[in-house]
Design brief:
Elements (H helix, E strand, L loop, with lengths): L19 H29 L5 H16 L4 H4 L5 H17 L7 H29 L5 H29 L4 H22 L20 H27 L5 H29 L1 H21 L3 H13 L5 H10 L5 H29 L1 H19 L16
Length: 399
């Protein structure tokens, strides 16, 4: 008997919930269950159970970023798998890697499970970007991408709440936590495979790397966005702890507040981008980021620092505009290939910014955030060339 997961969406018996949006929403929940849970417990687990020092955790985080840097190889996997099938394989690797993490509380065991988890995570995120831009119409894409962010925020709050309750009141073991969250994610992945139909692609995707000169602005904005993300992820949170003495509980509350606000605001931002257009949205985002990074460099009050941290996180939702800008200018057959390319470009910053800016931090932490303001200024200038009326052409030569 053919599994339901192999049925075509052209069948008239398809249920109302068997839609691309539901597939991507459930996939986002899977990623959140696995990856957010992995991250939330990681530092305590590595120190308490594996005896990690800064050297080992630094190596682990570097290994975690390598699959992101190699995300361009996803296009070669499409020679063997359909994108939707490859997305499910990637989710399986992610959830299995997380589920078994607790069983390997030693250095090389954690390195191995981290790489396995990271391969699944980064390949899925690459394919997710490709599928969402193919499955959603250009007019509806900003609003639907905002709704997907909102759903992931709800899932994040559930994960953080579960971990807080489990460790605070039930003395849960780390291996239990990883097994529960990773295992639940794997079961949902299996359900998607069995009960979700195959959604037809409107355009056959290229199965080789595609680099075009007219996508240069998109590549630049993607690189600058990756650099900005590294400053936020690595140094903004570190400032909260080192400079203002925020505890683990304080940081967790900030995470939860960020996601609570995203539940309501992310869909609004997505819909707003669809109305005002990508250039105006990106202009507002980068002006806001210049002010936020300047604030980080000057702030001396822990309440103001927390406010800046929350505002900074909200601006991530506006990155939808970069994706929808590419959707509007791209040859439809280029989307899958360029999803991998752009993910690799986004991760170039992850290779050198933490180490380089870490050295700058030792000299003067405020210089890191002044550099962030400079990156935002570069993004602001570049965004003024955004033109979604640029017509794609399948006849363009590779550059």
């Amino acid at each position: 008997m053919t599994p339901k997961g192999h049925q075509s969406v052209t069948q008239q018996t398809r249920s109302a919930w068997q839609t691309p949006f539901v597939f991507l929403a459930l996939s986002g929940i899977i990623v959140t269950l696995a990856f957010a849970g992995w991250m939330a417990m990681l530092n305590n687990f590595t120190v308490e159970k594996a005896g990690f020092t800064g050297a080992e955790i630094g190596m682990l985080q570097s290994l975690r970023e390598i699959p992101g840097f190699l995300a361009f190889t996803a296009v070669f996997m499409l020679l063997a798998f359909r994108e939707q099938t490859f997305a499910l394989i990637s989710l399986s690797l992610l959830t299995i890697g997380v589920a078994v993490t607790g069983f390997f509380p030693f250095e090389y065991g954690l390195y191995a499970t981290t790489v396995l988890m990271s391969i699944g995570f980064h390949y899925y995120e690459t394919i997710n970007q490709s599928l969402s831009l193919q499955w959603f119409d250009k007019e509806e894409a900003p609003a639907l991408l905002g709704k997907l962010l909102s759903i992931k925020s709800v899932a994040s709050i559930v994960v953080y709440g579960f971990i807080w309750l489990a460790f605070s009141y039930f003395s849960m073991q780390y291996w239990h936590g990883y097994l529960i969250l990773g295992g639940l994610g794997f079961l949902i992945t299996l359900w998607l495979w069995l009960y979700m139909p195959r959604f037809e692609q409107k355009v056959t995707q290229h199965k080789h790397l595609v680099l075009r000169k007219r996508y240069s602005l998109y590549y630049l904005l993607t690189f600058l966005s990756g650099a900005r993300r590294q400053i936020f992820v690595v140094f903004a949170g570190f400032m909260m702890v080192e400079k203002f003495g925020y505890s683990v509980a304080d940081i967790t509350l900030l995470y939860m507040l960020n996601h609570l606000l995203n539940i309501y605001i992310a869909p609004k931002i997505g819909a707003w981008i669809g109305v005002v257009g990508e250039r105006k949205a990106l202009t507002l985002e980068y002006i806001g980021l210049i002010l936020v990074f300047t604030g980080y460099a000057l702030v001396d009050n822990h309440y103001m620092a927390a406010t800046l941290y929350v505002i900074d996180h909200l601006f991530f939702a506006m990155a939808i505009a970069i994706k929808t800008y590419f959707q509007k200018i791209a040859d439809p057959a280029d989307i899958a290939s360029n999803a991998g390319v752009s993910f690799t470009i986004n991760h170039i910053a992850a290779v050198f910014i933490p180490a380089l800016f870490g050295l700058i931090w030792l000299y003067n932490p405020s210089y890191v955030f002044w550099a962030g303001a400079g990156i935002a200024c570069c993004s602001l200038v570049a965004s003024q060339w955004v033109n979604t009326l640029q017509k794609p052409t399948t006849q363009e030569n590779l550059a």
